[in-house]
Specification:
The structure is a homodimer.
Chain A lengths: L2 H8 L4 H17 L9 E5 L5 H9 L8 E3 L6 E6 L4 E7 L6 H4 L2 H10 L2 H4 E6 L12 E3 L6 E3 L4 E3 L2 E3 L1 H10 L2
Parallel strand pairs in A: 1-2
Antiparallel strand pairs in A: 1-3, 3-4, 4-5, 6-7, 8-9
Helix pairs in contact in A: 1-3, 2-3, 2-5
């Protein structure tokens, strides 16, 4: 996906999206990888800011495919791992190198991010990480209360009945 | 985004993606809404299966935009809320109506999902929900140990020093 397709996916252009675009591209380049069709690549993201949408588009590590792992550290860091080469790379955006006058204007900031040299804003390191487990498909069971289907690993036991979490919470608060 | 663009985003075609496509489309139709450029729409998803990638593409509720809320209930349910109309709709996929012989063949299953009548597989209800809060932009501070930037809300206090979660965890385990 090219930058304009990524902007279309995200919905609008912004500095955060441009940052994620540069970070994800730099990670793929360092790994010598292309987009993940299935789960060849796994990405661990340390925030859930705009840039992750660019990462989803560029790496194919998407929320729905189980190869996007969110660690809520509030850091502008992506670690991308290739299951084929068993190599990992950590990409960090260094906001301190962005001149203050650039950061004041969001449009200019985004343009600046897209055009500056990677080494000015990014730190890219190879890292050793443990191979993340693959996403698993689970069977589903009906909740004993609402009868809706629930993935077996998310079933709760309520006095011997297998129920979904919303029904479990409702019954617990009604009786609490 | 059309179906082939969504398949490209997800990386491959599968029954789960087709299910999410039908669910998200049905939700948008019920709300009489189009894709969210910014945060007009908020989606609450009750699993992180393939279909959520179709929802991200169709509704514009994306992981990076803060208008995709994940409740890990293991249920094939999307609740989509419009900040403009203050209306919400709950869409549930009913797997029990899919004939067993269709489910055995993934390609045929996906095709069947895309072509069957919505009322055969989906339950769509309007719901009253509280308006979810908008995503907030936070300032960042440098971690006192690694010096990397951390969102202020994710800072931890380590003996009076403001540190990031990975440094906090490392120091705690080193001294534990």
């Amino acid at each position: 996906m090219n930058y304009s397709e990524i902007v279309r996916f995200h919905g609008h252009e912004c500095p955060g999206l441009a940052i994620g675009y540069r970070m994800a591209l730099a990670g793929l380049e360092a790994l010598k990888c292309i987009r993940s069709k299935d789960e060849e690549l796994v990405s661990i993201v340390e925030n859930d800011a705009c840039g992750v949408d660019a990462l989803q588009c560029l790496t194919g590590s998407t929320f729905g495919k189980g190869n996007l792992i969110f660690r809520n550290y509030g850091k502008q860091v992506y670690t991308i791992y290739s299951r084929n080469s068993h190599k990992g790379v950590r990409v960090r955006f260094n906001v301190t190198t962005v001149p203050d006058e650039i950061r004041k204007d969001r449009k200019r900031f985004a343009e600046w991010i897209l055009s500056c040299a990677a080494e000015n804003i990014l730190e890219v390191k190879t890292v050793d990480i443990e191979q993340p487990p693959r996403a698993k498909t689970r069977t589903s069971l009906p909740c004993a209360i609402c009868r809706e289907s629930v993935m077996e690993t998310r079933i709760r036991d309520l006095d011997g009945r297998s129920v979904c979490i919303p029904c479990f919470n409702k019954e617990s608060s009604d009786n609490g």
